[in-house]
C-alpha cells in the first residue's frame, strides 16, 4: 500500500501509541481549560493510557444543541475560519468550527486515504456524496488538492449531470455513496453505456463493501467475476484489467448492494415520513417560491411554512433550501 507520510504511517507501534497518548492528554487539558461544558463532563478524569479512553464521556447531540452556537468551541472565534452549519435531531441547529490548522489536518488525513487508494497528481477526482461541497465532500476536495490531483469541486445536481461530468471531464476516481453507485450503474445499463468506456480506475465508497469482495481486492485482484460468467464478458473483463480497469460481475455487484439495504432502511423510513404537504412544499420551493408565497398557495402562514421546512430539512439531512430540493430530486421524492 502506498503511503503519504512515512513518518507517521510507518511509525513503530509503541512510538505511535505514545504519541497518541500525549496528544490525547494535551487535547483534554485544552478542553478542560477552555470549555465549561467539558470541565463539567470530564471532572477529575485522568488518562494514563490509551485503554482509559473507555472512561471518557461521549459528546452527545444534546450537548452540542445546548451549547449552540459557540459554547463548545475551545478557541476564540477569531481563530475559526470556517463554520459548517448542520441540523441535528428534530431539526435542532448545530455548527462545527474549523481553524486553518484543523482544515489542513483534515485535508492531510483524507489525502492519506486517497494515496492509499492509488490516487496521484495525475488523477482527476469526482466527489459525489450528496452533501454539498462544503460539508462531507469538502474533506475529499482538500485531500485531493493536497495530493495535487485535479478535483471537480462541485457535486452534480442530478444523475444526468454526473454522467455528463464523467464523460466530459474523464475523472479517474469517483468518491461516492453506495446509493449513488447503484443509481449510476442502473443509468449506464439503461442507456447501454459500457462502464469501461468511462475513464474511472477507482471507486471509493463511503461505506464498507462485502468481506469477500474486499478480500479479493486486498489480494491484488483487478477484477472479481463468477465462474459462470459468459465467455464474451470474461474476455472483455480481461482486456479491461490489462488497461488497468477493474471489473465486478453483476451478480457480485448485487451481493454488495444487498449489504447496503439495511443501511438504507432508515433513509427509506424518513422518506416515507414526508407527507403529501411536505412534498408539495418541496415542489414549490424548487420553483423558487418564498415561504410567504408557498403559504398563500397552501393556505398556511409564512411562519408555519418556515417551521415545516425545518422539519423537512431534518428528515432529508439537508442544511438549506437548495440542499433539500437537490436531495428530494436525487431520491425521486419530487
Would you mind describing this structure in some detail?
- This protein is an alpha/beta fold.
- Among the domains are: about 1-60, no CATH class; about 265-330, Winged helix-like DNA-binding domain superfamily/Winged helix DNA-binding domain (Arc Repressor Mutant, subunit A), CATH 1.10.10.10.
- Helix content is about 55%, strand content about 10%.
- The chain has helices at about 5-10, 15-35, 35-40, 60-65, 100-115, 135-145, 160-170, 180-190, 210-220, 230-240, 250-260, 260-270, 275-285, 290-300, 300-315, 320-330; strands at about 80-85, 95-100, 125-130, 150, 175, 200-205, 225, 245-250.
- The strands form 3 sheets. Strands 4-3-5-6 form a 4-stranded parallel β-sheet, with helices on both faces.
- Strand 7, helix 10 and strand 8 (about 245-250) form a beta-alpha-beta unit.
- About 20% of the residues are buried.
